[in-house]
Write a structure and sequence with these properties.
Layout lengths: L1 E5 L7 E9 L20 E7 L10 E8 L5 E5 L5 E6 L7 E8 L2 E11 L4 E6 L5 E6 L5 E5 L19 E6 L12 E8 L7 E8 L5 E8 L8 E5 L2 E3 L5 E4 L3 E2 L14 E4 L16 E3 L6 E6 L2 E5 L5 E6 L5 E6 L7 E7 L5 E6 L2 E10 L5 E5 L5 E6 L5 E5 L6 E6 L5 E7 L18 E8 L12 E6 L2 E7 L5 E8 L2 E9 L5 E5 L5 E6 L5 E6 L3 E8 L5 E6 L3 E7 L8 E8 L2 E12 L5 E6 L11 E5 L5 E5 L8 E5 L5 E4 L2 E5 L7 E4 L2 E5 L5 E4 L9 E5 L5 E6 L2 E10 L5 E8 L2 E2 L3 E5 L2 E4 L2 E8 L2 E9 L26 E4 L15 E2 L6 E2 L8 E4 L16 E5 L5 E6 L4 E7 L5 E6 L19 E3 L2 E4 L4 E2 L3
Antiparallel strand pairs: 1-2, 2-3, 3-4, 4-5, 5-6, 6-7, 7-8, 8-9, 9-10, 10-11, 11-12, 12-13, 13-14, 14-15, 15-16, 16-19, 17-18, 18-20, 20-21, 21-22, 22-23, 23-24, 24-25, 25-26, 26-27, 27-28, 28-29, 29-30, 30-31, 31-32, 32-33, 33-34, 34-35, 35-36, 36-37, 37-38, 38-39, 39-40, 40-41, 41-42, ...
């Protein structure tokens, strides 16, 4: 039997084609015989055409299956050629008990499963590392205990025994005829935790007779309470036909029973059609009305759906007959709406994207018959090609630049083994992956399945070797990384991780052997962070939403974070950083919001005026983009912003940006200073030098990562950037006057090294709370073999007193903590760009290096609403440094109230150009545009 989908536009283009071969007159599952009479109706081969491809023609993805005489699939061969056999229980031959996977003809991986034959549910599973997970059920077949590797399944739901299971589930039925909430049934989930009463954390989900969750409860220590309170959350009410009509904020239950009209202001949802009194027959939402009045109304008019916000800004989208969006427009009726349109094939794949109704912006996509994008033609760069193997792995990427391709090579289990960079012709070569990157450069290679040093590493990544060095991993019985070793340019650092009985991070052992311990309270929340000779966080308070509301630092400084009630959207109200005995706060900011919930005003209660004032008032256009910032009195830090019809930023204060007509998202000039790009859409130069050509030059590797920056007017000054296999920045090396300056090494987000210091970074969740430098030159100095700067890249910008850099994991363009993204400079423009954990860089002369490792060198970072560093305090609790930002993330100034005992930051500010990192993309705050396509 063959299934085909073809375009219905008259072209009858084949969109997908799959053939199913059954057990016919020829039972050979490898046979290509014509379709015959089926005997059991079992599919023995599925053959999917790949169609157009950049890696070959006539390719097919084929899966083969063999069965026993009962119809059980006992052998599967995947498209990659990977073969697995399955054996079933001997008693009933119903349940697959063992799976063996072969690499070639060798049985390599084995996993096993045992079933509770009463219910046909999994009782135990044994993974590739022979680690056992156990499941236990009650007489109704409901899961009552789950035990992960390392825990003990004994005494499931038996009282009087230590709680050694990972999770227990207790079921209590509601009372028939009782009133709310006693009429509700509930499931109590008990999760193991070493500090909780009874050894577990308990939470309940209350369910009505229709199986709908009505609310949940848990024990939380609220603010500075001495003991946990019962908190009700996720409470909802339903309308007469079973749709959610009210959603309530969490609240503390103080003795009284839960009612159907709890305290707190709810978010209500109406299902009336287009503002009438008639219920939408399709059950669609008509109005969402939060308690902060950020109301949103939705109107349905055939294929058009219109949304109006509380300010009556209008947006709409239009769909085709199949429900695919073909047009979106926001800021409807305004002077500068944002418009995008799309076309699709019959399967819903996006074929074209156009912005601002301008044909010059159209991006075109082509897909193979399995729905994978194989070609993208982008007016800002050119043609990008992608190739896939028969197993669905991306194996080839060809960039618009000539003679620049990337190959990914996989094993039979579809695990990447090598990544190769080819400078050969722009045609796929099958020989490159047939051996060790034959005819190409090996960018990275991967090894799996190590059990050395007690690692439970079967089926997991063991090590990687790349241009920067290498990385090694060891795993615990649950597959968590417990040890990692990172080598960067011949320097190695290790990190080790420990977990408590509840599975939470408990310890981190840093490269110098220092161990930081995370201490948890009886409700499971983080309470303190300490080491043998230092306290980083002595206590933390949380609100009803689980947000940190107070952080008591080890240096005596307190961060108080206050939030509005639900009438103001429970948003951040203020941040205050104080120290007992010091009358002036280190930081004091208050926030107000507009009718859409956007930040409208920041009030600085510490620095009311001058260069350090954070005071600002913001306005937004009908699309939601930043329109202006009004700073302090006297016009200080006032900025206006403008956008063109396709979303490019064309005005930033006094700076004017102009774009090319043929490559509509590429800057042509910045204040009449020319900008050029390479074939892949990455910025190549900016400006010109009187005698040395372009003032700024940027170089990139085949993966489009900035690898060096160079000022043509200062050939002796350059900065090199080094990346690992994840495209994470791991080192930067600067040259000044042809001499190599100290390097910065980024071993992980927890540890970096530079100028002879190992800087240990301590986090509370995702919040960086402190950094501790110790003199450890073995992690950063004395590296040789770095090439001299010859035609590298650029670096320019006005001389700033402060600069900032961030290193983030690879992925799509990240806006970090300072806002949102809009299309510009090839892909995106960033508003309020910042970092998840900014590193402050001082371009003023460095203080004399203080060698040592005592607690007196610890510094604490204190943040604003976006998570950006605003203040740095010493271990004595004194204010060392302040940092201030403009929109788009540029550091506009700061103050150094005391000499820091070390120099935070890295060598990125050693040249005159400031480059900030967002993912692997460069972002120039002076030019307000990203560098990399």
């Amino acid at each position: 039997m063959r299934t085909e989908y073809k375009a219905a536009d008259g072209s009858i283009q084949l969109l997908t084609g799959t053939a199913f071969y059954y057990d016919g007159v020829l039972a050979d599952r490898n046979s290509n015989a014509t379709f015959g009479r089926t005997t059991s109706g079992l599919v023995k081969r599925v053959e999917s055409e790949i169609g157009p491809s950049h890696v070959g023609s006539g390719l097919k993805s084929i899966t083969r299956t063999a069965y026993d005489n009962l119809g059980n699939a006992i052998e599967i061969e995947e498209p990659s050629g990977l073969r697995s056999t399955v054996s079933f229980d001997p008693q009933f031959a119903l349940y697959p008990e063992t799976r063996i996977t072969y690499l070639g003809s060798t049985p390599t991986y084995s996993s096993a499963t045992a079933f509770d034959l009463r219910f046909g549910k999994v009782a135990t599973s044994v993974d590739l590392n022979l680690q056992v997970t156990t499941y236990q059920y009650d007489s109704r077949g409901r899961l009552i205990c789950e035990t992960l590797p390392g825990d003990d399944p004994a005494h499931c739901q038996e009282s009087g025994w230590p709680f050694t299971r990972t999770t227990e589930y207790h079921y209590v039925d509601g009372s028939a005829g009782a009133s709310y909430p006693d009429s509700l049934s509930y499931i109590e989930t008990r999760r193991r935790h070493p500090n909780a009463p009874g050894g577990y954390l308990a939470a309940r989900q209350y369910i009505d007779a229709l199986g709908r969750q009505q609310f949940s409860t848990s024990n939380q220590i609220i603010e500075g309470a001495a003991s946990p309170s019962l908190v009700v959350s996720n409470q909802v009410r339903f309308d007469a036909i079973g749709r959610i009509s009210h959603q309530y904020p969490p609240y503390e239950l103080a003795g009284a029973a839960v009612t159907q009209s709890p305290p707190g202001l709810p978010t209500t949802t109406s299902y009336l059609l287009n503002g009438t009194t008639f219920i939408d027959p399709l059950g669609r939402v008509g109005v969402v009305d939060p308690p902060d009045a950020t109301r949103q109304a939705i109107r349905y008019e055939g294929k058009r759906t219109t949304t109006l916000n509380a300010r009556n800004d209008t947006a709409f989208e239009v769909t085709n007959d199949f429900g695919h969006v073909i047009r979106r427009e926001s800021g409807v009726g305004s002077s500068n709406p944002m418009v995008s349109s799309f076309t699709h094939d019959g399967l819903g794949h996006v074929l074209t994207e156009t912005f601002g109704d301008s044909a010059s912006t159209t991006i075109v996509h082509v897909y193979d018959l399995l729905g994978r994008r194989i070609t993208t033609t982008d007016p800002d760069s050119g043609v990008w090609k992608f190739g896939f193997d028969v197993a669905g792995n991306i194996v080839y990427q060809d960039t618009p630049a000539a003679n620049q391709s990337v190959y990914m090579c996989y094993d039979a289990m579809s695990r990447i083994q090598r990544r190769c960079i080819s400078s050969g012709p722009d045609l796929y070569s099958s020989t490159i992956c047939s051996s060790a990157c034959q005819g190409a450069e090996t960018e990275s290679s991967y090894v799996y399945d190590s059990v050395a040093n007690g690692s439970f590493g079967i089926g997991r990544l063991a090590s990687v070797t790349d241009a920067s060095g290498s990385a090694f991993f060891r795993y615990d019985s649950r597959g968590r990384i417990r040890y990692e070793s990172k080598t960067i340019l011949e320097r190695t650092a290790t990190l080790e991780y420990g977990f408590n009985a509840g599975g939470q991070p408990a310890t981190v052992k840093y490269p110098d052997g220092d161990i930081v311990t995370y201490n948890y309270r009886s409700d499971g929340s983080l309470g303190a962070i300490t080491s043998a000779d230092a306290t980083y966080v002595s206590s933390m308070h949380y609100d009803l939403y689980g947000r940190a509301s107070r952080i008591q630092r080890g240096n005596g400084v307190v961060d108080d974070i206050n939030f509005y009630n639900e009438g103001q959207g429970a948003r951040l109200q203020s941040v205050a950083v104080t120290k007992a005995g010091i009358s002036t706060p280190h930081l004091s900011l208050a926030y107000q919001y507009d009718s859409l919930g956007k930040l409208r005003q920041v009030t600085d209660n510490r620095n009311g005026s001058g260069q350090l004032a954070n005071n600002a008032t913001f306005e937004y256009d009908a699309v939601g983009r930043l329109k202006s910032q009004a700073g302090t009195a006297g016009g200080l830090f006032n900025y206006s912003y403008g956008y063109d019809s396709i979303g490019n930023l064309i005005q930033n204060g006094a700076t004017t940006l102009a774009y090319r007509s043929d490559r509509p998202h590429q800057l042509e000039t910045i204040d009449n200073v020319g900008v050029t790009y390479d074939s892949n859409g990455n910025r190549r130069t900016r400006g010109s030098h009187p005698t040395a050509g372009p003032a700024e030059v940027y170089n990139y590797d085949a993966l489009n990562r900035i690898v060096a920056v160079h000022d043509a007017g200062l050939v002796s000054h350059a900065t090199f950037f080094v990346y690992d296999y994840q495209s994470r920045l791991v080192a930067d090396i600067s040259w000044e006057d042809y001499a190599e300056t100290p390097k910065a090494f980024y071993y992980s987000k927890l540890a970096r090294a530079e100028d002879g210091d190992l800087v240990k970074r301590v986090f509370a969740g995702n919040l960086l709370v402190a950094e501790r430098p110790v003199w450890a030159p073995e992690f950063s100095t004395g590296v040789t073999g770095v090439p001299e700067p010859v035609l590298i890249v650029l670096l320019v910008c006005g001389v700033l007193g402060l600069c900032m850099i961030a290193t983030l994991p690879i992925g799509p363009l990240s806006t970090g903590r300072r806002g949102m993204a809009a299309r510009a400079c090839g892909i995106a423009l960033i508003y309020f760009v910042g970092t998840a954990a900014p590193l402050v860089i001082l371009t003023t002369p460095a203080q004399a290096q203080q060698q040592g490792s005592g607690p007196d060198r610890i510094v604490h970072q204190h943040f604003d609403h976006l998570g950006s560093t605003q203040a740095i305090t010493s271990q004595a609790g004194t204010l060392n440094h302040q940092v201030r930002y403009d929109p788009y993330g540029r550091i506009r100034g700061g103050s150094m109230d005391r000499a820091l005992p070390w120099r935070p930051g890295s060598g990125h500010a050693k040249n005159s150009l400031v480059i900030r990192r967002t993912s692997v993309r460069g972002y120039r705050s002076l030019a307000f545009a990203c560098l990399i396509r």
